[in-house]
Amino acid sequence: MSLSKEEIEKKRILVVGAGGIGCEVLKNILLIGFKHLEVIDLDVIDLSNLNRQFLFNKNHIGQPKSVIAAQVSKERYGPEAEIVSHHCEIQNNKFNIDYYKTFDVVINALDNLNARKHVNRMCVCANVPLIDGGTSGFIGQTTPIIPKETECYECQPKVPPKGYAVCTIRSNPSTAVHCVFWSKQLIQKLFGNADDGNYLNDFQFSSTTTRWKEVYDKVFTSDIKVLHQSEELWKLRKKPNIWTYEEIINCSDTSLLKDVKPFVKLYYNSFNILQQRYENNGPFEFEKDDDDMIDFITACTNIRCAIFNLQGISRFEVQEKAGNIIPAIPTTNSIISGLMIIEMMKVLSQKKENLRICYLAKKPLKNHLLTFEKTSQPNKQCYICGNEVSEFVCDLEVFTLKDIINQITERCSLINPTILKGDQLLYESGDDLEKEEIQMYEKVGKKKLIDLGFKDGETILFKDDIKTMTFILKEEDRKHDVINEEIKDSKKHL
Q1: Does this chain's domain 5-159+327-374 share its CATH topology with 389-492?
Q2: Rounded mean pLDDT, 357-374
Q3: Is 27 annotated as a binding residue?
Q4: What residues are paired with 448 via a beta bridge?
Q5: How many CB atoms lie within 10 A of CB 226?
Q6: What are the catalytic residues?
């Protein structure tokens, strides 16, 4: 079954994301002849977008991506189309289940794991087909999702963004990336809002006019002297270098320190610019396209690399790592967006038996860069599209109610859930609670599941505005339950 021109013009499509893939998708949809589109994106256009997001130019910098993408794509490719733009986050309450039900298909063009999970969940609940796609450098993937018929986005676990051990970043960096992350934490500590998760929260600095020197002496000299004294730490590698600010600044052009000197000067200049901004306007957040911030992180990164005998990196590489930037290549975006449209047309034409998951590789596999595989049936253990009743393995004597709330809320993308044990209300959350209610539920949340009367095989129910989910609590041998061991260990240090 193929779609007629009249049928195409009646279909309603939601495009989530107006970045590299989103721009290509909008163009393709309009060129086919679709007339009713909506596009959602929270971001604004910046200079770094222009090399691949072809709907934008320099005059658009600072304006909402969704608004400009809708305007420009309509002018170029679909003057008769009706395109509604929304400049806000996809988790906005106005995009509820009823909103999703107004569309024939949803296109996910996002680069954010949590947002993609959210759209997946909404489409499953609304029973609306979803076409998800993503790229990373030269590789990419397209996945068609038919609720309750194929695997959803969360049927298979997704690898979270890579993190690094705190001790490695602080005391024993082995790559330049570790130094970049350390420098990013430092800039947040010095000029940002308070953050309990900052690795350098124990650093204390004054607000004197020579604050730049106080910070330099601590992080690049006195702290290094302490690390230098640990024989155990440096058994397998060279000890860090100890250099004062004066030694580097006053070094001759023939000195081994000559390569570090420009970064020390850059540190001084960028620090004082940021300090002035901080004094005038208060704390600010890190921004990957802010030249002064990137100068500061570049300087700190390369000074620290030199101290720990590591190869330094360029300003561009620092910006890439500090901003967690995944290299985006226009050609890859174009290929993946084209594949997404092919799968979308299969869905709209009711050719579900022909649906394929498509992979784009960097290197040929059996002389092919593209690999295709059939879609699979939903994973019965999936929290989103599997059975309505799922098992949750835990140690009832270790897990508190709050432990299970945190894990299930994150896994299932629940928003302010209500928790029940049979008909008994155990826990509520949300902005409309009174102070006394919040305090009461916090107390309940700290209780262990066994103290709340839960036994092996009993059920616990989670409910928010969108979905109700039931979990069977299953006791497992503590020796084999890694999660329980981790929770036990963490509680020893509370």
Answers
A1: no
A2: 90
A3: no
A4: 400
A5: 9
A6: 167
| Contact predicate 122/97, CB 8 Å | yes
What count of Cα atoms within 13 Å lies in the side-chain half-sphere of residue 315? 13
Alpha helix positions (H), 78-203: 97-100, 113-126, 166-171, 176-191
d(CA 309, CA 84) in angstroms, rounded, equals 54
Tell me whether residue 155 is annotated as binding: yes
Amino acid at 365: L
111 is in an annotated binding site: yes
Task: Render pLDDT for 146-201 as a digit per residue (tens, 0 to 9).
Answer: 998 999 998 887 765 555 666 678 888 888 999 999 999 999 999 998 877 677 87
CATH architecture, domain 5-159+327-374: 3-Layer(aba) Sandwich (3.40)
DSSP per-residue string spanning 14-54: EEE--SHHHHHHHHHHHHHT--EEEEE---B--GGGTTT-T
Enumerate helices (H) and strands (E) in the chain, giving the number of each.
Answer: 17, 13
Does the model's pTM come out above 0.70?
no
Hey, where are the domains in the chain? 5-159+327-374, 166-322, 389-492
Q: How far apart are CA 163 and CA 178, in angstroms?
A: 10
382 labelled binding-site residue: yes
385 labeled binding residue: yes
The full DSSP string for 373-432 is EE--PPPTT-TTTS-SEEEEEE-TTT-BHHHHHHHHHHHHT-SS-EEEETTEEEE--STT
Cα separations (Å) of 352 from 34, 103, 146? Answer: 20, 18, 9
Which residues are within 8 A (CB) of 295 and not within 5 positions of it... i.e. 6 or more apart?
Answer: 266, 269, 270, 315
pLDDT at residue 488 greater than cutoff 60: no
The span from the CA of 14 to the CA of 82, in Å, is 12
The domain made up of 166-322 has a fold known as: Arc Repressor Mutant, subunit A (1.10.10)
Q: Which of 37, 38, 42 is nearest to 19 (CA)?
A: 42
Q: How far is Cα 183 from Cα 260, in angstroms, rounded to an integer?
A: 16
Kindly indicate whether the domain formed by 389-492 is annotated with CATH number 3.10.290.20: yes
67-76, 149-158, 315-324, 406-415, range with greatest mean pLDDT: 67-76
Residue pointed to by tokens 């298909």: 105
Element of type H or E holding 70: helix 65-77
